[in-house]
Write a structure and sequence with these properties.
By secondary structure, this protein is mainly alpha-helical. The radius of gyration is 11 Å and the shape is globular. The protein has four helices and no strands. The two termini are 12 Å apart.
Length: 56
């Protein structure tokens, strides 16, 4: 899911790819932000890229 967020996909697009609800995606992203003490998706994308988590 983090790779898809880093690619700039919306919650709805991620949900369609993973065959889950967009609300589930939103909840997972919000939980991840909280655990990593980040404030928004931009910070999350930076976090993912800086750690090479966006590479397949």
């Amino acid at each position: 899911m983090l790779r898809l967020v880093a690619k700039g996909l919306s919650y709805k697009q991620i949900a369609q790819r993973l065959v889950i609800s967009h609300r589930t995606v939103r909840n997972h992203v919000q939980n991840t932000l909280g655990k990593l003490r980040l404030h928004n998706r931009v910070e999350l994308v930076r976090y993912v890229i800086e750690r090479g988590l966006d590479e397949e």
